[in-house]
Amino acid sequence: MVQAWYMDDSEEDQRKPHQLQPTQPVSEQELQRLGVHSYKLDADNYETDPALAKIRKENNYSWMDIITIHKDTLPNYEQKLKIFYEEHLHLDDEIRYILEGSGYFDVRDQQERWIRISMEKGDMITLPAGIYHRFTLDEKNYVKAMRLFVGEPVWTPYNRPADDFEARSKYLQSLAQTA
């Protein structure tokens, strides 16, 4: 499964691990309480992987595409990295499956502290609608990821503050019920 930890508040390059010292790991159960779920899948066989097919069917992930984030493949690479790293939320779940490379998703806990989730080949993550988060590559500067959606893709980030959206209210209600 994915590794996660609380982040320091250093202004160093966003692509560094930023582990709080002493290290404070975050368990899979803690991530699940925040609505974040992860899976370990066979990225070498994603086209025929029955585990991925089952997840897609159970969750109605009917649409997918693949994005490669690297300076040689993504137009406006540096600008896109800055946009991905802006704290934002979506009105739908965000589902990402790392096929090659690695990167970080950062999410806020209930006390507004940043948790960094390290993702590498074979890791799939689902972030619930309404959770504040951001994404960055790690120091390898490369990731190839599958993006999954329920129905047609909606990829609109709403930068913080975006607390007036129903998705945010529902997310906060779900946190209160699990507390």
Automatic annotation (TrEMBL):
<keyword id="KW-0408">Iron</keyword>
<feature type="binding site">
    <location>
        <position position="133"/>
    </location>
    <ligand>
        <name>Ni(2+)</name>
    </ligand>
</feature>
<comment type="function">
    <text>Catalyzes 2 different reactions between oxygen and the acireductone 1,2-dihydroxy-3-keto-5-methylthiopentene (DHK-MTPene) depending upon the metal bound in the active site. Fe-containing acireductone dioxygenase (Fe-ARD) produces formate and 2-keto-4-methylthiobutyrate (KMTB), the alpha-ketoacid precursor of methionine in the methionine recycle pathway. Ni-containing acireductone dioxygenase (Ni-ARD) produces methylthiopropionate, carbon monoxide and formate, and does not lie on the methionine recycle pathway.</text>
</comment>
<dbReference type="InterPro" id="IPR027496">
    <property type="entry name" value="ARD_euk"/>
</dbReference>
<dbReference type="GO" id="GO:0019509">
    <property type="term" value="P:L-methionine salvage from methylthioadenosine"/>
</dbReference>
<comment type="subunit">
    <text>Monomer.</text>
</comment>
<keyword id="KW-1003">Cell membrane</keyword>
<keyword id="KW-0479">Metal-binding</keyword>
<dbReference type="GO" id="GO:0005506">
    <property type="term" value="F:iron ion binding"/>
</dbReference>
<feature type="binding site">
    <location>
        <position position="88"/>
    </location>
    <ligand>
        <name>Ni(2+)</name>
    </ligand>
</feature>
<comment type="pathway">
    <text>Amino-acid biosynthesis; L-methionine biosynthesis via salvage pathway; L-methionine from S-methyl-5-thio-alpha-D-ribose 1-phosphate: step 5/6.</text>
</comment>
<feature type="binding site">
    <location>
        <position position="94"/>
    </location>
    <ligand>
        <name>Ni(2+)</name>
    </ligand>
</feature>
<keyword id="KW-0028">Amino-acid biosynthesis</keyword>
<feature type="region of interest" description="Disordered">
    <location>
        <begin position="1"/>
        <end position="26"/>
    </location>
</feature>
<keyword id="KW-0472">Membrane</keyword>
<feature type="binding site">
    <location>
        <position position="133"/>
    </location>
    <ligand>
        <name>Fe(2+)</name>
    </ligand>
</feature>
<dbReference type="InterPro" id="IPR014710">
    <property type="entry name" value="RmlC-like_jellyroll"/>
</dbReference>
<dbReference type="GO" id="GO:0005634">
    <property type="term" value="C:nucleus"/>
</dbReference>
<dbReference type="GO" id="GO:0010309">
    <property type="term" value="F:acireductone dioxygenase [iron(II)-requiring] activity"/>
</dbReference>
<dbReference type="InterPro" id="IPR011051">
    <property type="entry name" value="RmlC_Cupin_sf"/>
</dbReference>
<protein>
    <recommendedName>
        <fullName>Acireductone dioxygenase</fullName>
        <ecNumber>1.13.11.53</ecNumber>
        <ecNumber>1.13.11.54</ecNumber>
    </recommendedName>
</protein>
<keyword id="KW-0539">Nucleus</keyword>
<comment type="similarity">
    <text>Belongs to the acireductone dioxygenase (ARD) family.</text>
</comment>
<keyword id="KW-0963">Cytoplasm</keyword>
<dbReference type="GO" id="GO:0010308">
    <property type="term" value="F:acireductone dioxygenase (Ni2+-requiring) activity"/>
</dbReference>
<keyword id="KW-0533">Nickel</keyword>
<dbReference type="GO" id="GO:0016151">
    <property type="term" value="F:nickel cation binding"/>
</dbReference>
<dbReference type="Pfam" id="PF03079">
    <property type="entry name" value="ARD"/>
</dbReference>
<keyword id="KW-0560">Oxidoreductase</keyword>
<feature type="binding site">
    <location>
        <position position="88"/>
    </location>
    <ligand>
        <name>Fe(2+)</name>
    </ligand>
</feature>
<feature type="binding site">
    <location>
        <position position="90"/>
    </location>
    <ligand>
        <name>Fe(2+)</name>
    </ligand>
</feature>
<feature type="binding site">
    <location>
        <position position="90"/>
    </location>
    <ligand>
        <name>Ni(2+)</name>
    </ligand>
</feature>
<dbReference type="InterPro" id="IPR004313">
    <property type="entry name" value="ARD"/>
</dbReference>
<feature type="binding site">
    <location>
        <position position="94"/>
    </location>
    <ligand>
        <name>Fe(2+)</name>
    </ligand>
</feature>
<dbReference type="GO" id="GO:0005737">
    <property type="term" value="C:cytoplasm"/>
</dbReference>
<dbReference type="GO" id="GO:0005886">
    <property type="term" value="C:plasma membrane"/>
</dbReference>
<keyword id="KW-0486">Methionine biosynthesis</keyword>
<keyword id="KW-0223">Dioxygenase</keyword>
